[in-house]
Design goal:
The complex is a heterodimer of chains A (413) and B (248).
Chain A lengths: L12 H9 L3 H28 L3 H5 L1 H6 L7 H24 L12 H20 L4 H24 L5 H4 L5 H14 L14 H27 L4 H15 L3 H15 L8 H27 L2 H9 L4 H31 L11 H10 L7 H30 L10
Chain B lengths: L6 E11 L5 E11 L3 E5 L6 H7 L8 E6 L2 E2 L4 H10 E4 L11 H11 L5 H14 L15 H13 L5 E5 L7 H16 L3 E5 L3 H7 L2 E6 L2 E6 L1 H6 L4 H10 L1
Parallel strand pairs in B: 3-8, 3-9, 6-7, 7-8
Antiparallel strand pairs in B: 1-2, 1-4, 4-5, 9-10
The chains are: A mainly alpha (413), B alpha/beta (248).
């Protein structure tokens, strides 16, 4: 017992892996069997992806997957919107780095950001080529990615030079952009109308998801507050609404929305089928968001509202400045989980005949030219959905870190 | 100082039943004049905290009347908000807002309720933090402070609304023993500056030194009201003697 290493010394990762996987003979056997199975599956997948799969189904239909039957001569509006979105994203991203949360270290290009920029650049270079898009379109994607990174750099570098008064208006950029986007997509204000029935693919999916997410959140907060209200009418109204919605499957509500809303509302007022579905999604998700927010409200000690009230803050102000900021922070993971579910629920739109991503995929696979290419299509669809959900999850975790008051700089202890 | 000081709190025959039927206050009377420090003592469950919390309408009551700074407490929410602006309250559990910095804890209510300019309130807040001895912590979050520091921030937060009356609900009961003194010192200084205070507390030394009068409550009633000297050395009532023998 001459040299027992102190407990704090940690073995190298390789050593630890060795110890965990090959600790005993039985462990070793199990590990080898599992690794062999993994290897075989991986090899099989790559052989399929590289030699058997025919990706022509995607490159031939890339426009259909992206925007559905959106008229070709109007597609410049979507390009413009994509460019604006890229600029706004880069701008906000840079500003977030220029003004880190209180206490956090300011760095223009933290390591994660360098990775994100690199991945973005690779995607922008490789994806259009892989899809065999025309050179003109490839160049557009490169330009958009370049603009995003440029805006990111400029905002990070010169963001602090923006005067305080203007800076407070910057968060308004996104709702404004949403309205501009709506006009660009649907037309009006001098632009040719493109009816919702011609939207499709990723455009429709993203539009439905963002619309429902943006509206279900405030609605959910109001419902959660209503459920905890002391006014019986408000409380029971909220309870009945939440429990009714949670008791019905989304697909029934979607069919109900398609069939009944037309009868309920006077002629002409009933919104288009796409918008009906969007509202059903919104009202559906709001009930679940309300329950997530309520869990956050329960977590805030009663003393917080008491203290705020004792300082003379009227209830609405106390809720906005004291209770909700704390409750929403607690409810954030559950709420974002709800948003992710919502994004995936948009695939149900294909069942009521809307051409969202999944709906588009079904029509493409029904095309005799591409029969039997289901694996390729579904794989790409899965990756697309996974990327969107991963982005939401990453964003929520970044937000959680930023909102954590006790260790503003530390990511998570 | 020829005329007698103004009446700040006048409670007459206050009775309260909890929803479960418990008779918490059984006709309690109390008058507090400007500049007085009234310390309310009593065994737990005697209704002293409940009574204190009726002064800023944190607890409702069914019978009797309470007039605070000339405003009678009623169900009228605007009237209640008006009273709460003039009455500061310090809680056993501090109840600081954990998502705001110390400075923002102080400035929130004056800026949002009194609509005063932020820069001016911040200057005043820093002065107050200086007064309670924690100016250097202004930009930290409450969770980073010790219990005693948090309670001093809570006092400063109430003072930032420039209240005319301060209520303390067992302000030192949740503190580690070595932090009790720093909070009591702040309260003592506040009393010396002439603040009208009602304090629910078990701190005998504080009561002896600072209180104008000591009130003993038991079973929802006021048993005895006396100057501290008399109360601690020569209590008149049997219940007071019993209580004093229990806490000393």
């Amino acid at each position: 017992m001459a040299t027992t290493p102190p407990l704090v010394v940690r073995a190298s990762p390789l050593r630890r892996l060795q110890k965990e996987l090959f600790g005993s003979r039985l462990d070793g056997l199990i590990s080898i069997a599992l690794l062999a199975a993994l290897l075989a599956a991986g090899l099989g997948f790559f052989r399929w992806a590289l030699f058997q799969a025919q990706w022509a189904v995607l490159s031939a239909n890339s426009t259909l997957f992206a925007v559905g039957r959106y008229p070709v001569e109007q597609q410049w509006r979507l390009w413009l919107l994509t460019t604006l979105l890229a600029l706004a994203t880069g701008f906000s991203w840079g500003l977030l780095r220029a003004f880190p949360g209180s206490g956090a270290v300011r760095a223009l290009w933290p390591r994660n950001d360098r990775w994100a920029a690199a991945i973005l650049a690779v995607l922008a270079l490789w994806r259009p080529m892989a899809l065999q898009l025309t050179l003109a379109i490839q160049v557009r994607w490169w330009g958009i990615a370049g603009l995003l990174l440029l805006a990111r750099w400029a905002a990070g570098r010169y963001g602090p030079a923006i005067p305080q008064a203007c800076r407070r208006l910057i968060p308004l950029l996104w709702p404004l952009l949403y309205l501009v986007g709506m006009v660009l997509i649907s037309g009006g204000l001098g632009l040719v109308q493109v009816p919702p029935s011609e939207w499709g693919g990723l455009l429709l999916t993203v539009l439905m998801a963002t619309f429902a997410i943006l509206l279900c959140f405030p609605l959910g907060v109001l419902l959660a507050l209503g459920r905890r209200s002391e006014l019986p009418l408000l409380r029971w109204g909220s309870v009945i609404y939440i429990e009714f919605i949670r008791g019905a499957p989304l697909i029934t509500l979607l069919f109900l929305g398609q069939n009944i809303l037309g009868f309920l509302l006077p002629g002409g007022l009933a919104p288009d089928r796409v918008w009906r579905a969007a509202w059903v999604l919104t009202f559906f998700a709001a009930a679940y968001v309300a329950e997530a927010v309520r869990s956050g409200l329960v977590a805030v000690p009663a003393g917080q509202l008491e203290a705020a009230r004792s300082l003379g803050l009227p209830v609405p102000l106390a809720l906005v400045h004291v209770v909700l900021p704390q409750a929403l922070r607690v409810a954030l993971p559950a709420t974002v989980g709800q948003f992710i579910t919502l994004l995936q629920d948009t695939t149900l739109l294909s069942l009521i005949g809307l051409l969202d991503l999944l709906g588009t995929a079904r029509t493409v696979m029904a095309n005799p030219m591409f029969l039997g290419k289901n694996a390729e299509v579904y794989l790409v669809l899965a990756i697309l959905f996974w990327s969107c959900c991963a982005a939401l999850g990453l964003g929520s975790r970044a937000l959680e870190t930023r909102l954590n008051p006790h260790s503003p700089s530390a990511p998570q202890a | 100082m020829t005329s007698s000081p103004a009446l700040m709190i006048e409670a007459r025959g206050v009775e309260k039943w909890y929803p479960n039927g418990f008779h918490a206050l059984r006709g309690v009377d109390l008058c507090v004049h400007q500049g007085e420090v009234v310390v309310i003592m009593g065994p737990s469950g005697s209704g002293k905290s409940t009574f204190l919390r009726t002064f800023n309408a944190m607890e409702d009551f069914q019978k009797g009347s309470i007039v605070v700074d000339g405003i009678e407490i009623s169900d009228d929410l605007r009237r209640i908000d008006a009273i709460r602006r003039e009455v500061g309250m310090v809680f056993q559990q501090f109840n600081l807002f954990p998502h705001l910095t110390v400075l923002d804890n102080l400035t929130l209510a004056p800026v949002k309720v009194r609509k005063r300019p932020k820069a001016e309130v911040e200057r005043q807040a820093l002065e107050l933090l200086e007064r309670v001895g924690i100016a250097e912590q202004a930009h930290k979050f409450p969770g980073q402070l010790s219990g005693g520091q948090q309670q001093r921030v809570a006092i400063a937060r109430s003072l930032c609304m420039e209240p005319r009356i301060m209520l303390f609900d067992e302000p030192t009961s949740a503190l580690d023993p070595e932090m009790v003194q720093e909070v009591l010192a702040v309260m003592q200084e506040l009393a010396r500056d002439g603040m009208t205070m009602v304090v629910v507390s078990h701190e005998v030394r504080f009561a002896r030194k600072v209180a104008s009068r000591v009130v003993l409550m038991a079973d929802g009633e006021v048993v005895e009201v006396a100057p501290p000297q008399q109360f601690f050395t020569n209590p008149r009532h049997e219940r007071s003697k019993q209580f004093l023998s229990q806490i000393s």
